[in-house]
Design a protein that fits this description.
- The structure is a single chain.
- The chain contains no helices and eight strands.
- It is mainly β.
- It has a domain of about 30 residues.
- It has a two-stranded antiparallel sheet. A two-stranded antiparallel sheet has the order 3-4.
- A hairpin with a 6-residue loop joins strand 3 and strand 4.
- The protein is globular and about 45 Å long.
- The chain binds zinc ion (4 copies).
Length: about 110
């Protein structure tokens, strides 16, 4: 019997096709990439999101290299997600998000005074 498994894009381990989360690397998008702002599925070769027009290339805050807006930096592997600053939410959000995609509250960034 064939089991419908597909390799995770991020770690290469086989994951159930309907999984929402890779059980190996905990990626929330094992089979594709999503825009971190509007969560629309995007391809890695897209320059901007077709849903919200955000730039899908970001500068990694850890190594300063341009990288695709994924959960991790493609260059140094550092996570690009931060927890929502709303204590009742705490969902993982993209590091440059202004607003949480889960609760809609503004995200406070510790870097940069004022
Ligand atoms: Zn994985
Ligand atoms: Zn988008
Ligand atoms: Zn990096
Ligand atoms: Zn939130």
């Amino acid at each position: 019997m064939a089991t419908y498994k597909q390799p995770c894009l991020h770690c290469g381990e086989f994951v159930e096709r309907d999984a929402r989360l890779c059980p190996h690397c905990h990626s929330r998008s094992p089979f594709g990439y999503h825009c971190p702002t509007c969560l629309k599925p995007v391809n890695k070769d897209q320059a901007v999101c077709s849903g919200c027009a955000r730039c899908l290339t970001v500068i990694c805050p850890t190594c300063a290299a341009p990288t695709f807006a994924d959960e991790r930096c493609g260059e140094c592997g550092s996570g690009l997600m931060v927890h929502c600053t709303n204590p009742r939410c705490g969902q993982l959000q993209f590091f440059d998000a202004q607003k949480c995609t889960a609760c809609g509250k503004k995200i406070k960034h510790e870097t940069g005074r004022g």
